[in-house]
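User: Fold this, then the next.

Assistant: Folding the first:
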Amino acid sequence: MQCRKPIVAGQFYPAQNDACIDEINQYLNERTSSETLPERIAAGIVPHAGWFFSGSLAALVFSAIKLQNDKVHTFVIFGAAHSFFGNKPAVYDKGCWLTPVGEIFIDEQLADSIIDSGMAVSGPEAHRGEHSIEVQVPFIQYLFAGAKIVPIIVPPGSKAVALGEAVGEIISKDTERVIVCIGSTDLTHYGPRYGFTPMGVGDNAIEWASQVNDRQFVDLALKLEPQAMLTSAAENGNACGPGAAAAAVAAAKKLGRKKGVLLAQTNSRDVMLEKMNTSSAESVGYAAIVF
């Protein structure tokens, strides 16, 4: 049986089981949200930076799912295509994934159904160097014992929306299991290091990145406009995983959701100020959203 080994354990999150569990519990308690949650959560958007920066936002999404969906059988996790340039979304369709928390199995039946829809292909090799899905998996292992996953790398093209719609249609016909979709993306990468400084540098520029540029992408997600999300990301550079986020939104829309709920939004500079009392000329945005 093929099993994907972790590639960013010890870098983006701890490499030891106990340390992973301790940090997950820390992040579960680090933030709260007073927003009214959907009666049943069908999908979410999470960030994928190192846990130090974005773990508390990911925890918000997964704890909300746990609260509203006591049992989840499978998570379809749409990941960013940082280094994959294939024409179609790529599914890790067999075997398992390993993390310091243990192993988690692929929902091979669901993976096959998604591939059979014609909207994705089998492509385990596309996942070898990609971290955007991996950093979510320990949260699922810890909070949803026995749950399976279907990891899918989603390039930022029009096929992302078609994939999300197809997955939503497949899920809608499964009356026996609870299946939740997750889209993994960070937002604007701002500053000289990232070669993106349309508003110059400094605090005002980073504030613009968060409150204007990021917020445009977030608002489109909340209004369930996946195609516009892809366009915004292409024009404004306000998401590194727009295909993943758009697929999750398209699936949520197909499953009857009318709007999203923003649980939290922040950026790496603000996290550094809060946790380390230091600033930076660069910043990466993060948002936690459920549908």
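Now the next one, as you asked:
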Amino acid sequence: MNYHLLAICIALAAYMMSKPIELLASPEGELDQRLLEEIRKNYRMDDVDRARFNAVSNTDINRLALNRDIVRGEDGHFSHRIAAKGISNQKASGRCWMFAGFNVMRPKVIDEMGLEDFEFSSAYLQFWDKMEKANLYLEAVIEMRDADPLDRDWQLINEWMVGDGGWWNFVTSLVKKYGTVPVSVMPETHSSENTRVMNIVLGRLLRSRAAMIIDSAGKGVGVEVLRKAKEKALADVYRFLCLNLGEPPVEFKWRYEIKKKGGEKGGQDDEENKLKVAQDRLSELRLYTPQAFYEEFVGVDLTEFVCLYNDAAKPTGKHYSFSRARNIFGERDMHFVNIEIGEMKEIAVKSVLANQPMWFAVNMGVDQSGEHGLMEHELFDYEALFGVDMPLSKAQRTRFNAGASNHAMVLTGVDLQNGKPRKWLVENSWGTDKGNKGHWTLYDRWFDEHVYTVIVHRAHVPKEILDIFEQAPEVLPAWYPGAMGIQYNP
């Protein structure tokens, strides 16, 4: 027998037996049996909670929590409403920022050209957005080829490489470079309206090409060689996008029909006369480039619009930018001046009263009803339903990553009482089956709590705010709440 080994075992056993409390004790802060027993002992389901349990376990929570006083108080009227026609539908895609951008431009085209309706091609701009994001991603791979795989920036660029999300500056960059086309020139496809699988496959394609670039970089080749590999990868991306969205036109022929005049009529038994009248309203068939089309039919300098933000967690009166918040390599990141919410509403009122539709971004996941077309703070009274207080300020929501822009829409009306906004009219891009035939009523308290961004023409912004844009911005990291873009899917 090995007595030496036996002695060691006996000593170890004795040591283990002398330390039972240390080895078996629960870590401090654990949800242990003592605490669970105390919680159980102090709770008994009374009749009120049993009624709550029966209701909640059998019915949708939002139907139970919906504040009927708010629903029945909405009359649908606004003291000022911008003339706009048609409701767009982004379908199952995160292109709200793009649709909202087009919905700002669309009324001008309809009004000035005398059209019944008009819609831009979102598939056209979507094609170039994906193409530019692919280039931006591969450039980031080349830039960060030696980065630690756990680096936070590296993880984010790989997560968001070709996502649908965007900001207003994404719209302006794309329109400036590629122009626009009517929807008839490049219609929607299944992939443009249902982007999930297309994005997954495109992401797989880009990661495979990124891996090739990283492998080449590991062999010591220079940036010039890596960019040649990137160019080959972008050719694959272009082909992939053509198969999903169609090939974007370099030039196209287009004509339009002017709407009927007030007294213009055509008898049911006079088809020849009706056809002649319609032909008289038809414009000449002309050849356009996308850039020439934008200049002729829109012609708005989008760089004259500025981004104003209300982040309650940051000091106001300062210039900020979001790192990597762009879709085109070489363009400027999304940047803004942080202002008080009262200032933001005053500027927004000026824009609407000037008949300028306004792109804006919100946290759409809170207190809004697509069934009723309403946005109001505490529209769903969860506190009364569950009998528990849940106070949380706008600044606190940002701190706990529960408050940020995730959806873009357009403000097209306001209801003023004694010069102050009571509610706002919103044009959404979820089709006519949601909201009030595509529109929402946004109450002023909801504006305070859940509106973060407005894009307004410089003409409506006080000089002291415009001057702040001249300051060097404080750069917020790419992982700051909301920084990576807005892409709320209905």
